[in-house]
Amino acid sequence: MTYTRRIRCDIRGIVQGVGFRPFIYRLARRHELSGWVCNSSGGVILEAQGEDAALHLFVFAIRAEAPPLAVITALESEEILASCGDEFIIRESKGGEGAPEISPDWDVCPDCLRELFDPADRRFLYPFITCTNCGPRYSIITGTPYDRPLTTMAPFVMCPLCQGEYYDPADRRFHAQPNGCPLCGPRLTLTDSGGEQVAGDPLAQAIRLLAAGKILAVKGTGGYHLAVDATNDGAVRELRRRKQRDEKPFALMAPGLMEISRFALPDPLEERLIASPERPIVLVRRRDDHNLSPAVAPANGYFGVMLPSTPLQHLLLRENFPALVMTSGNLSDEPIAFRDEDARQRLGITADFFLTHDRSIQTRLDDSVLRVFQGNPLFLRRSRGYAPRAVPLPAGQRSVLAVGAELKGAICLTRGDRAFLSQHIGDLKNPETLASLEETTTHLKKILAIRPELVAHDLHPDYLSTRWAQEMTGIPLVGVQHHHAHLASCMAENGVEGEVMGIIFDGTGFGLDGTVWGGEFLVGGYESFRRAGHIRQVPLPGGDAAVREPFRMALSWLREAFGPAAFELPLPFIASLSEEEKKLFDRMIQRGINSPLTSSCGRLFDGVAALLGVRSAVSYEGQAAIELEGMAEQGGERPPFSFALDATESGCLCLDFSEMIRELMEALLAGHHRGTLARAFHDTVAHGAVELCAAIRQETGLERVLLSGGVFQNRLLAERTHDLLAARNFQVFTHRLVPPNDGGVALGQAVIAGRSRICA
Ligand code: ZN
Ligand code: ZN
Ligand code: FE
């Protein structure tokens, strides 16, 4: 026997602007239900009426068959009184103050891609083809509710054909806000660097110019790329020269996975990530026999590769280039250019031509960068395709704005049990980047309808983010210790509660005792923490100069291990110092002149890299450590070096690597393979860390260990540490949703502040 029921469902998550209402409409018709669906302030609500069994199947299918861009975080249904009517309709949005979640920008879907290359289709080769299942979202939204007038599509008036699709619930372009066609939508233009339009078809001409070795600025989803033919060595070198970028690897874009396999060696999981609709840059081991320019990624065993993520990029690459260099359109440290005028000014000297269009970008987004670690993505940079997707928090909390640290700036806003981590903004070392951070904050607050009750910031008094937070008035501030924030960030994304221990290995962070921390073993949770251990502190000769010149850290560790005799060791970077300089460094290190003490693990990696001859100076942060990891991957196995675990007066454990430095030095002078030594160094750090954790477990009984900090971008170290911990029955947690580096710090700050007892 069947009977009629009526239910009301409240659905939350990313359910607006992703074709959710037409999906519900079709689903309801399929199950012969009557009722309605509409956007609400927080998501989508619907009422459906029909036979009991059909309703069950309907509710089940909402989750099971949801459109590809949708993310359902909550679906609540209740039974209500049945009413009359046998139609199912899509009702107009209620509008008003919205608090939905915003979809990230996605690649072209297979349906649109097919049409793009179908000569019979009216959007054949149209670079702005899109539907409800694909295309730009976050980058074009100017306000909420997500509706065409509140996107950068507002100036484009749809032609009758496009309108027909837009208003037809059965069409896959029903309410596709960026909908358009060659008649009514955005158009491409190609100009030279002076702004003069180039005659002919912009796309065909752009392909011709790229093939001729020219540098093109190409407007993408969240900003401009600088593009050159990756097989053209002269062009790649010229781009390096003009961009003033000596060694940092360039990202590559290839038309398909097959083309990628000709110059790189992605494993199946890497392939899956590369081909995912988020379209990140994935670091993939490169082939030795590739035919791309060696200047793409000098001294690096990996290529950063991605597939096209806009129709324009598909059109540029397909059957034209095995790979293009697609590097962000900026000069060294500035944010990526995304406004047309600004791009023209800033990139005019770098690019020969501009391939651009008349749909503006509202939100600047860099490409996301990740590598694979133990079957999961490990974010190095979280941006396009992922931002501003929410990270679910283990519990609801007060609304917080967290402003992040200095390097790899990103902010975090929370609402209930959701944390919205912004896209990567860049290193906050100049006013432009800070301005970009402020803009992003204002925009995200608006479109997510969040009014924070607290502001969280780093304890470092000189970070631009800290100063900015301190300028805000009428809102309580919460200062959060840098490594505590790292720990909480990893806890939050893993849904971990209670007391844990954390290995936080990173470059620099302001310590509670005023020294530079960075090789930390913390015990605690969201509410509080203590420093249970750290890597032995050594002087950082010259402060920030030591970051740019890793040989200074090598001197510091060698001085620690060998005393004054360090300056007589037969190493090239020591031999190149004059007697004066040697005395100067000796004095600096001995007396701590302009040499703050640091426990930084990142600086330990720098020092060992210099010692093993990787390099004495770097052109970007982390370069020495990255190349050291590359060297270690070439090495063979040998037992780890010695290290010591001592208790300090404060009751904190100290992990001392000076013995390792002595043994490493002796082995190096005895002519051992550098790769093998580099590998053994990684191994030693992992063994040391695990011993220290074991000591903490003995004392506290804690079993859970979380790994965070930028040094854990190093896969070899992360893997070693993880495996050794697991082998000793620790429960290990690592980052999968946000970067382990400072790009993820804002999440931790937000949760610590949200759970603090500070009153708003
Ligand atoms: Zn599509
Ligand atoms: Zn049209
Ligand atoms: Fe950090």
Molecular structure report:
The protein has 760 residues and is of the alpha/beta class. The chain contains 23 helices and 29 strands. The strands form 5 sheets. It has a 10-stranded mixed beta sheet with strand order 6-13-7-8-12-9-11-10-14-15, with helices on both faces. The protein has a 7-stranded mixed beta sheet with strand order 26-27-23-22-21-28-29, with helices on both faces. A 5-stranded mixed beta sheet has the order 4-1-3-2-5. Helix 13 packs across helix 23, helix 15 crosses helix 18 and helix 19 packs across helix 21. The radius of gyration is 28 Å and the shape is globular. The N and C termini lie far apart (57 Å). Bound molecules: zinc ion (2 copies) and fe (iii) ion (FE).
Topology, element by element:
Elements (H helix, E strand, L loop, with lengths): L3 E11 L5 H11 L3 E6 L3 E9 H13 L6 E10 L7 E3 L19 H7 L43 H7 L21 E5 L9 H10 L4 E4 L4 E6 L3 H11 L7 E3 L3 H4 L7 H7 L6 E5 L16 E5 L4 H7 L6 E5 L11 H8 L5 E5 L11 E5 L2 E6 L8 E8 L2 E3 L9 E10 L9 H17 L6 E5 L5 H8 L5 E4 L1 H12 L6 E11 L5 E9 L4 E7 L2 E2 L5 H4 L2 H12 L9 H4 L3 H13 L5 E2 L2 H11 L11 H11 L10 E4 L5 E4 L1 H12 L4 H27 L3 E5 L6 H13 L3 E3 L11 H11 L5
Parallel strand pairs: 2-5, 7-13, 9-11, 10-14, 17-19, 19-20, 21-28, 23-27, 28-29
Antiparallel strand pairs: 1-3, 1-4, 2-3, 6-13, 7-8, 8-12, 9-12, 10-11, 14-15, 16-18, 17-18, 21-22, 22-23, 24-25, 26-27
Helix pairs in contact: 13-23, 15-18, 15-20, 18-19, 19-21, 20-21, 21-22
